[in-house]
Amino acid sequence: MGARIRLRRVGRKKQASYRIVVAEQSAARDGAYIEAIGFYNPRRQPAELRLDLGRVDYWIGNGATPSETTKELILKARKGGDAKVKLYAGDEQPEKETSPTAVRARRSERTKPKLKEAAAAPAEVEGQIAHDADGQTPAEGDPVAEAHGETADPDAAREAAAEAKTESEAEA
User: Fold this and answer.
1) Residue 7 contacts residue 67 (beta carbons within 8 Å)
2) Which of 62, 72, 121, 168 to pair with 162, CA 20 to 30 A apart?
3) Whether 33 contacts 27, CB under 8 Å
4) DSSP annotation string for 86-114
């Protein structure tokens, strides 16, 4: 049996990426292989392709036949990529780093603004002015609003409540 250059599925469920491998034709899709010569990740935009063209030429020279998909990927790699597939060199990293520390850093950057908003919310509630039943702010000097203990100044409302408490204690 001859060798074949084909894709070997790796990755989690519903998050497939592929190794480009040289395997015996009789081997299972995800089974044993002779050599891994590249990597293909179609989930990125544009898709990520890493391929050792020197090893591809070596295996084709020794009688290995590429599958239809790998034949297309090899052609794109020889052209240097296209709009849908970006070719990366062996040591070159894609723009977005996927190490666990980099992922944690990106996640914390996304949650920091939410945490700041949540911390600021109680302070904003304390500083709000009292509103009457119609949603209107009571005007200063309004005798009806002052009779009910509502004022435009929250500090003045606290002082009025404290005075009322001391008056009731003095009468008792």
Assistant:
1) yes
2) 121
3) yes
4) EEE-SSPPPSS--SHHHHHHHHHHHHHHH
| Single-letter amino acid code for the residue at 78 | R
End-to-end CA distance of the chain: 107
pLDDT digits (tens, 9 = 90+) for 67-118: 999 999 999 999 888 888 888 875 555 556 667 777 777 777 777 666 666 6
User: Distance between CA atoms of 129 and 131, rounded to whole angstroms?
Assistant: 6
What residue has token string 């894709």? Answer: 7
pTM score above 0.85: no
How many beta carbons lie within 10 A of that of residue 67, not counting itself? 13
In 3D, which of 94, 58, 56, 106 has the Cα closest to residue 78?
56
C-alpha gyration radius of the chain: 35
How far apart CA 33 and CA 38 sit, in angstroms, is: 13
